């Protein structure tokens, strides 16, 4: 006798899962261990999405140099290329071709004598690019010393104490003595005389920064090069320069065309920049370019037989997505020279205008005004003793703004500042909103009897070397 009851597994009579999303959520979700079983994709998404709401708003993060906005077309291209592994150049030859085009575009932008002979590559960011440049400096110095029959076991690198922490890491990881030039008085970065004083026969190079992370200022690359030229004439020491242009190498070519800082100086061996800073790409891409093949020793380049192709590679990373490189090429194609100039000009205009307006509020004094990299630092006037820059930073967080407060490195650890980075997407309108929130915070801060925050509250914004 046939049964009239629905059979187990009969999809036509299976109950629909119509419970609201949050009632499907497990009572507990392990944070540091894999769950025992699966959960619905929508539930997993909502759990992660809700936790991410606790992050700050990236567009209001005035601490970061990293691009926080991109055109929809750039985002679409990145999504289309997310699964492409940059290292598989034989499988993704056009991605490799677009990377090469970007290198040649940068070589021309930085006035390489023969852009066809330069060598360079993309990286995950300017930190990796800086380490590759440092390795090339070290290896060139070692080859030269060994050819002369001299010891090559005590290399050193000269740089300002304002360098980004990646240079401290490079020195530690690759056993190079860092020789830091401290800040003195109103000099907040490297000086030619101080750099030359620290050079000797073991110096592999001098690092100059085009856009200091501490205050946005350019270091005097041409003057350092001239001082090193004089050193060679006097002593025979021939010390190359690497330009860390993480930010400024994508600003100066468009806005400061009179400034000589790049491959027009014969002493500049290599330059790095961040594609994901003022290159206008979402995080993570950087670039490093050497003036010619001689500047990158061939024994640092690995020729790998990988997935059917013989491929040269020089990088600290192997597998990484091609999406950011494609977005960089899109930006170069989309904006061209005039487009980049307009974007960077707008950023600088916003920075200089906002800096002047903050200075006019009364309690603040500018360290820089955003006239080089669109970045400026400012401090409290000496007569302000009842609140600190750290109090100001916390007050602005209440309105969603992330404005870092920190102390400068030796010998100016007495100097505490706030710093604002103006990026593409931080408009005049947003600058006005920030200024209004600063104005709102000041009356309450003035009513304080004593400071509530000190440098101990600035740990999250540490970005320079630790000395």
Automatic annotation (TrEMBL):
Recorded catalytic activity of this chain's protein: L-glutamate + H(+) = 4-aminobutanoate + CO2
Keywords per UniProt: Decarboxylase, Lyase, Pyridoxal phosphate
GO terms of molecular function: glutamate decarboxylase activity
InterPro entries named in the record: Glutamate_decarboxylase, PyrdxlP-dep_de-COase, PyrdxlP-dep_Trfase, PyrdxlP-dep_Trfase_major
Gene3D superfamilies attached to this UniProt entry: 3.90.1150.160, 4.10.280.50, Type I PLP-dependent aspartate aminotransferase-like (Major domain) (3.40.640.10)
Keyword flag rRNA processing: no
Annotated region described as Disordered, given as residue ranges: 447-467
Cofactor: pyridoxal 5'-phosphate
This enzyme's EC code(s): 4.1.1.15
Sequence similarity: Belongs to the group II decarboxylase family.
Descriptive protein name: Glutamate decarboxylase
């Amino acid at each position: 006798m046939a049964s009239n009851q629905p059979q187990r597994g009969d999809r036509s009579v299976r109950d629909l899962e119509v419970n609201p999303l949050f009632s499907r959520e497990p009572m507990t979700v392990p944070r540091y261990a894999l769950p025992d079983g699966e959960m619905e994709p929508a539930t997993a998404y909502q759990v992660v999405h809700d936790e991410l709401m606790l992050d700050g708003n990236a567009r209001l993060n005035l601490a970061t140099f990293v691009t926080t906005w991109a055109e929809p077309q750039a985002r679409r291209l990145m999504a289309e290329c997310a699964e492409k592994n940059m290292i598989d150049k034989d499988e993704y030859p056009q991605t490799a071709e677009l990377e090469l085009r970007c290198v040649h575009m940068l070589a021309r932008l930085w006035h390489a004598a023969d852009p066809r002979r330069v060598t360079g590559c993309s990286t995950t960011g300017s930190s990796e690019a800086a380490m590759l440049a440092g390795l090339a400096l070290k290896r060139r110095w070692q080859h030269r010393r060994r050819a002369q029959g001299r010891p090559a076991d005590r290399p050193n690198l000269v740089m300002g104490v304002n360098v980004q922490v990646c240079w401290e890491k490079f020195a530690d990881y690759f056993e190079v003595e860092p020789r830091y030039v401290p800040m003195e008085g109103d000099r907040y970065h490297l000086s030619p005389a101080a750099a030359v004083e620290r050079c000797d026969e073991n110096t592999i190079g001098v690092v100059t920064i085009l856009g200091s992370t501490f205050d946005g200022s350019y270091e005097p690359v041409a003057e350092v090069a001239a001082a090193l030229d004089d050193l060679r004439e006097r002593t025979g020491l021939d010390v190359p320069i690497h330009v860390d242009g993480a930010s400024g190498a994508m600003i100066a070519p468009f806005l400061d065309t009179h400034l000589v800082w790049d491959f027009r100086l014969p002493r500049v061996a290599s330059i790095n920049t961040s594609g994901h800073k003022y290159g206008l790409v979402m995080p993570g891409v950087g670039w490093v370019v050497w003036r010619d093949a001689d500047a990158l020793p061939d024994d640092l380049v690995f020729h790998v037989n990988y997935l059917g192709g013989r491929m040269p590679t020089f990088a600290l990373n192997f597998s990484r997505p091609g999406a950011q490189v494609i977005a960089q090429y899109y930006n170069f194609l989309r904006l061209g020279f005039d487009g980049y100039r307009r974007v960077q000009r707008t950023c600088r205009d916003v920075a200089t205008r906002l800096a002047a307006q903050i200075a006019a509020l009364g309690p603040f004094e500018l360290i820089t005004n955003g006239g080089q990299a669109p970045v400026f630092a400012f401090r409290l006037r000496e007569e302000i003793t009842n609140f600190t820059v750290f109090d100001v930073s916390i007050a602005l967080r209440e309105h969603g703004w992330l404005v870092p407060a920190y102390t400068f490195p030796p010998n100016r650890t007495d100097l505490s500042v706030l710093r604002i980075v103006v990026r593409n997407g931080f408009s005049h309108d947003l600058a006005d909103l920030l200024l209004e929130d600063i104005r709102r915070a000041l009356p309450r801060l003035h009513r304080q009897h004593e400071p509530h925050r000190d440098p101990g509250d600035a740990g999250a914004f540490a970005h320079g070397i630790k000395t």
